[in-house]
Amino acid sequence: MKFNEITSNMKVVFIIPGVGDSFYCGNCMRDNLHASALQKKGHEVIVIPLYLPLNKHAFHTKSPIFFPATTYYLAQKLFKRISMPKWLERFTGSDSMLKMASSMSGTTSTKGMEGMTLSMIHGEDPVFQKEVERLITWLSQDEKPHIIHLSSSLLIGIAKAIKEKMDTPVVCSLQDEEVWIDSMKEKYARLAWDSINKNLRFVDRLVTTSKFYKGIAEERLPDAIDIEVAYPGINLSKYNESEAIGGKVIGYYYRLNQENGLDILARAFVSLKRKNSIPGLRLKIGGGYTDHDKKFVKEVRQILAPVMRDVEFLDDYSMADHSTFYSSISLISVPLTFDEGVGLYLCEAFASGVPAVAPATGSFPEIIGEAGQLYHPNTPEKLSDALEKLLSDETLYKKAALKAKEKASEVYNDHILAGRLHEIYKQTFNND
């Protein structure tokens, strides 16, 4: 089918992992931006959650939950050769069980999750086949979508079933899969990468969020060709210019865990307060956390104890609160300890004219450019120096804030994102 044979208002199905909604999830935020940008342009978007519900998420969906986490996990462990009893399936898939699973979601440990991970990638075992059949039956009840967009290559087994039974074009996003896969034992990680690479033949287009991550994906997946880059797109109308521009409020807005470097920022802040080179300096921390993170958050509070009067901790998290947070800070700093495909909190901060201070790793040099300060290595001392440099030099700060606003307008806005996704979807038809 040629693209000009279908309506310009497309019907797009996004298949995404549900989360507990208690913390800032980068991939979830990316999916939300994709869906919202397309909806704003008049396309029909249907969001289908896997594993867990989207209770407090910005998405609104009438879809049931497919591959419910509690049921799928138990079935993978105990019922691969025989059918799970119906009563047990109803119990494990109940709202109360999924709610409990949501409260425990967000673990960064892959221990015990290898089977589920490989099942979703392979797309072959009986437990997977039963659930994917339910998904495809539901999809087939209504008008066939023009595009099905998978949130991650960790779900690529679904692409195989879609192509075999629906023959609908499939687009698959790539972002930070290696963070999860490479934390598994080597034999499982090797199987995961090999299987993703093998199942790429069932995907019509691959799309990622930065040139940096495109390079990572090409290195890990030899058969990946023509990976498209679609930078994040923020709805600029939801973000007002920060009232703290030119002020002295450092903001951290991401999940509160060690991988995201909150302890590094905490030590840098304490150092700056003791030095007292920036009078009135304050720190605002938000982004939420899970039960797995509570011990770490307690440790961060202990680090900050000597200066806690100048620290504001936000214990609650909601995606609806994002814009409010950025309108109250002077700069954003999330000193990640790994190479991230894109920092969506940076793009959001730029929408409020807020510059960034970040380690010179991963996609940060590409995403930030002149809209802030980069430093290396990622230590509290180097971060402290970079923060002090930007906040002490009014000319440098104003230039970075201006560049942040320019980047939001010219690169990271939802109008551009919607057009880019539309072009990528168009290519799947014209090359069909």
How would you describe what is shown here?
By secondary structure, the chain is α/β, with parallel strands linked by helices. It has two domains: 3-233 and 414-430, 3-Layer(aba) Sandwich (Rossmann fold), CATH 3.40.50; 236-410, Glycogen Phosphorylase B (Rossmann fold). The protein is built from 18 helices and twelve strands. The strands form three sheets. The protein has a six-stranded parallel sheet, sandwiched between helices. It has a four-stranded parallel sheet with strand order 9-8-7-10. The longest helix is centred in the last third of the chain and has 17 residues, at 394-410. It is globular and about 65 Å long. The N and C termini lie close together (7 Å).
What labels would you give this structure?
about 425 residues, alpha/beta, Rossmann fold, 6-stranded parallel beta sheet, 4-stranded parallel beta sheet, 12 strands
Q: At the fourth CATH level, what is the homologous superfamily of the largest domain? A: Glycogen Phosphorylase B
User: What is the first-to-last residue Cα distance?
Assistant: 7 Å
| Poorly predicted parts | none
**Strand-residue proportion:** 5-15%
Mean pLDDT: 89
> Largest sheet, order of strands side by side?
2-1-3-4-5-6
Could you state the order of secondary-structure elements as H and E? EHEHHHHHEHEHHEHEEHEHEHEHEHEHHH
Number of helices: 18
**Main beta-sheet strand count, sense and barrel state:** 6 strands, parallel
Share of residues in helices: 40-55%
Pairing-aware structural class of the strands and helices? alpha/beta
CATH class of the largest domain: Alpha Beta
The name of the CATH topology of the largest domain is: Rossmann fold
What is the radius of gyration?
22 Å
CATH architecture identity of the largest domain: 3-Layer(aba) Sandwich
Number of extended strands = 12
Give the number of domains: 2
The 3D shape can be described as globular
